[in-house]
Design a protein that fits this description.
This protein has 16 helices and 11 strands. The strands form 3 sheets. Strands 1-7-6-5-4-2-3 form a 7-stranded mixed beta sheet, with helices on both faces. A two-stranded antiparallel sheet has the order 8-9. The protein has 2 domains: about 250 residues, Aspartate Aminotransferase, domain 2 (3-Layer(aba) Sandwich), CATH 3.40.640; about 110 residues, Aspartate Aminotransferase, domain 1. It is α/β, with parallel strands linked by helices and about 475 residues long.
């Protein structure tokens, strides 16, 4: 590349920056540092979008250049006006918390823009090592695995391997009308529904098995369903156990389910996109007993391993199962060595170096710090549950949280319709901006559904949920208000 004397690229090069690269980087670093400082503590409100941002967002495609420093400042304004899951009082859905070293890892990985489709030398080795480390952390005997964009793609990947195992050749022939079934609990994440739709299995073939009083799949009902299907000539493709449901954090009894799968010779996939990191900590390890007997599992480092999106991992016991489902021989992709290309075991072709941020995070913090952070989130869930249980104006579920989702309901005296009240309250809480929560429908009832997966959250932040909900809820419940 032609370079000017000060080391900057020649100005005739298209797409060159209008300022020195180091200055641009320093400017971006200042924005990042300010963001990190602002995430250390909650902020008292979400500011409204400023006027400049509103104007910018209405602009057409710019034909000519704008100075890079000006544009970076605009990006900072836009980010400041966005819902950042990294903030300590973001409790909606299952957030990711933008661990600092992960941000740095993404910058480094994207700078080199390695493609992990085919052998990328050191980066490929790092991906394999990071796969081994995740497997070791949660106690799964992985023969292979890969980084994915998240639980959705990990679940499709595990189920594609299961389909090919159950019906060898089906990736080529299709299912050709053969009756098949996949089993999961009624609380399964809808990414599994989408996976069976995409794989041609069909969501009508997804058997939703009843749950017990703790909202966990009933292994006896699963056993009966598979036996009935087998007797009717239906081919069971896989059972999906959930290791931490999205709705309430229930962990299916993996050991009992593994027994059923072994008896019927069916593939067991554990969707641990959210909850599987809890298998690494002493207080929850027993809940995941049987994981070591599963055939595949999903785990999202961008959920409870605190990394920025997108960073999912799919693990399989038997490497051949992935190759059987995904490998291709293309003229432009020769297999020069006996080593497999990543693309032979994954769905995506162009794949960023997602593994780097997890590899860096494990090295910089050590696994012990991750376990401590997870235990802290579990203690926060417990704290909210106990405080809400003791309060007269809140309701909790009968059993304490299994993981870190804690559904609560505000039920002050005089509220005639708790569903309408909690629905309105969730909206008020989001509009208010001091804490960020979402509501969820549990057995037809509207609940507030905080989830603790952020390493920045403190006890003060946890208790703010009750304070804010109580204050806004009392206003809503006043005579004359809608609920
Ligand atoms: C249990 C479970 N599985 C799968 C997913 C999908 O993960 P992703 O959003 O990373 O695709 C989620 C997302 O919340 C989940 O909770």
């Amino acid at each position: 590349m032609a370079a000017s004397p000060d080391g900057e690229p020649a100005p005739e090069r298209p797409l060159h920056l209008d300022a020195a690269r180091e200055e641009v980087l320093e400017h971006a670093a200042r924005i990042v540092a300010a963001a990190w400082r602002s995430f250390d503590r909650f902020r008292p409100e979400e500011p409204p979008l400023d006027e400049r941002v509103r104007r910018l967002l209405a602009e057409a495609l710019p034909e000519s250049a704008t100075p890079v420093h000006e544009v970076l400042d605009d990006a900072a304004r836009i980010l400041d006006g966005s819902i950042a899951q990294a903030r300590p009082r973001y409790f909606a859905f299952i957030g990711s918390s933008g661990l600092e070293i992960g941000t740095v890892g993404d910058l480094l990985a994207h700078t080199y823009d390695v493609n992990l489709a085919v052998d990328a030398r050191a980066a490929t080795q790092v991906e394999r090592q990071a796969v081994r480390w995740v497997a070791e952390l949660v106690g799964f005997p992985a023969g292979a695995g890969a980084f994915t964009s998240g639980g959705t793609v990990s679940n499709v990947t595990g189920l594609a391997a299961a389909r090919e195992r159950a019906l060898p050749g089906s990736r080529h022939e299709g299912l050709a009308g053969r009756p098949v079934a996949v089993y999961c609990s009624t609380e399964v994440h809808y990414s599994v529904t989408r996976a069976v739709e995409l794989l041609g299995i069909g969501s009508d073939r997804l058997r939703a098995i009843d749950t017990d009083g703790l909202r966990r799949m009933r292994a006896d009902a699963l056993d009966e369903a598979i036996a009935a299907d087998r007797a009717a000539g239906v081919v069971p493709i896989a059972v999906v156990a959930t290791g931490g449901t999205t709705l309430t954090g229930a962990v299916d009894p993996i050991g009992a389910i593994a027994d059923v799968c072994a008896r019927h010779g069916v593939w067991l996939h554990v969707d641990g996109a959210y909850g599987l990191p809890a298998a690494a900590v002493a207080s929850r390890r027993a809940m995941f007993e049987g994981l070591e007997r599963a055939d595949s599992c999903s785990i999202d480092a961008h959920k409870w391993l605190y990394l920025p999106k997108a960073c999912g991992v799919v693990l399989v016991r038997d490497a051949d199962a992935l190759t059987a489902a995904f490998a291709h021989e293309q003229g432009y992709l020769p297999h020069q060595r006996h080593e497999l290309h990543a693309v032979d075991i994954t769905l995506e072709y162009s794949r960023p170096f997602r593994a780097l941020k997890l590899w860096l995070a494990f090295r910089v913090h050590g696994a012990a710090a991750f376990k401590a952070a997870i235990e802290r989130n579990l203690a926060e869930a417990d704290l909210l549950y106990r405080r809400a249980q003791a309060a007269e104006d809140f309701e909790v579920m009968e059993a304490p949280p299994q993981l870190s989702v804690v559904p609560i309901r505000h039920v002050p005296p005089g509220v005639r319709d708790p569903d309408a009240h909690n629905r309105a309250l969730a909206e008020q809480i989001q509009a208010d901006g001091r804490v960020y929560l979402a509501s969820a429908l549990i057995d037809g009832e509207v609940w507030l559904r905080p989830c603790f997966v952020n390493f920045r959250t403190t006890e003060e932040d946890v208790l703010a949920i009750l304070e804010v909900a109580r204050e806004l809820g009392a206003q809503l419940a006043r005579p004359g208000s809608a609920a």
